[in-house]
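Input record, target 12 of the design panel.
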């Protein structure tokens, strides 16, 4: 059985639905949004309660754990560093230690933001120099996970896609603005290597079946600016790319500092899996196809049914 923490989040929902579709036995942990997903044994646990985190894993005794749960709001983490530390670092350590104790494979989801963004194209062995509280907590989580469970996989990711929860990933936010007829700012000075949550889910599940351990950059194969990404997204959905207006991060006055170029090199994961990571166009084609298949409404219904 695979246990997915953060199963109500952007990546977690994609993971559990993909795992069920692949015929795997799946359990999910959520916190405030307990989704009802056919085929998934879902429970609500506050992972900041470290005893509850440990005992849940010991009770479920999964063969594999994919740990997605985290405090992911960068500005919230900047304001509440101690709270961010408990979930992002202490809970990750407790889960990894428990996984090691029951011989479960542990895949820890981390972030491209561990780098300072000064040059981009980062490889796994490059020095990580986080520039905000969130990123520092994620880097520390990587270190704690590998200390507690040396055979663990750490996957540094960046994601866009469809949310079950009433909140926007980058691509949903761009679409929402464009569909409302508004101009959408796109940073021309911020670069990343986006991957669709559903593509990432499929790759992470496949990674469990390979004998991998250590740090991997599991992102899209292509470096793009947020501006170009938003323009490509508009085109993929038949919207006007001209409504995406160039903007600069330094003018945006965000509370927490952000790195500028956190594009990652995917050579290591491509070699390990014997396949290239998807590029931007392929990810956007699939993002659009999922909409046509009714995927966004389907996963939102899992949330709507949560309280019934
Ligand atoms: N989104 C991105 O672009 C991005 C980029 C880089 C790295 N990552 C990493 O990828 C992973 C998944 O990100 P995501 O975007 O899917 O996250 P998300 O949508 O923000 O979801 C966060 C998940 O964590 C759960 N959670 C929050 N507090 C919890 C608590 N106290 N106890 C138990 N669960 C708790 C949430 O549960 P409830 O909603 O039920 O409360 C939710 O399922 C994270 O580790 C994140 O750091 C994400």
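The sequence produced for target 12 reads:
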């Amino acid at each position: 059985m695979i246990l997915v923490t953060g199963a109500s989040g952007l990546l977690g929902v994609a993971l559990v639905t993909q795992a069920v579709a692949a015929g795997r036995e799946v359990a999910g942990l959520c916190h405030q949004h307990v989704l009802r997903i056919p085929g998934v044994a879902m429970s609500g646990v506050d992972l900041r309660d470290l005893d509850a985190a440990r005992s849940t894993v010991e009770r479920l005794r999964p063969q594999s754990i994919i740990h997605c749960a985290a405090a992911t709001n960068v500005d919230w983490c900047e304001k509440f560093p101690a709270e961010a530390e408990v979930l992002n670092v202490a809970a990750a350590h407790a889960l990894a230690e428990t996984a090691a104790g029951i011989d479960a494979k542990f895949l820890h989801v981390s972030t491209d933001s561990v780098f300072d963004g000064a040059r981009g194209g980062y490889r796994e062995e490059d020095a990580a120099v986080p520039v905000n509280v969130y990123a520092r907590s994620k880097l520390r989580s990587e270190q704690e996970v590998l200390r507690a469970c040396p055979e663990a996989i750490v996957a540094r990711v960046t994601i866009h896609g469809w949310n079950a929860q009433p909140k926007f990933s980058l691509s949903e936010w761009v679409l929402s603005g464009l569909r409302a007829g508004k101009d959408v700012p796109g940073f021309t000075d911020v670069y990343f290597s986006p991957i669709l949550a559903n593509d990432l889910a499929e790759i992470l599940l496949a990674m469990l079946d390979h004998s991998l351990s250590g740090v991997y950059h599991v992102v899209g194969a292509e470096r793009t600016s947020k501006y170009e990404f938003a323009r490509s997204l508009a085109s993929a959905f038949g919207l006007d790319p001209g409504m995406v207006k160039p903007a600069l991060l330094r003018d945006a006055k965000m509370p927490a500092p952000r790195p500028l170029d956190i594009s990652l090199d995917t050579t290591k994961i491509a070699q390990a899996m014997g396949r290239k990571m998807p590029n931007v166009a392929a990810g956007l084609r699939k993002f659009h196809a999922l909409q046509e298949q009714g995927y966004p409404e389907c996963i939102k219904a899992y949330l709507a049914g949560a309280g019934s």
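The longest helix spans residues 81-101.
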